[in-house]
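Translate sequence into structure tokens.
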Amino acid sequence: MTIDVDVVRGLKRLHLHLEAAGQKSDDWSLARTLEDRLGAGQGAAGDLDKARALLAKYPKIS
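Result follows.
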């Protein structure tokens, strides 16, 4: 699997922003999980689509 660095960086910014805001929600957890898997090149089927959809929910952060 090719690593999409922009998506991984966006996920990192998102999870750090949500964490700093005290919003440890499902989105925070998903961002962390996807960042870890995609950043390691071990994404499962659909992970990249999930990551892009999550980032689209927070366009000003990611």
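Note: The chain has a mean pLDDT of 93.
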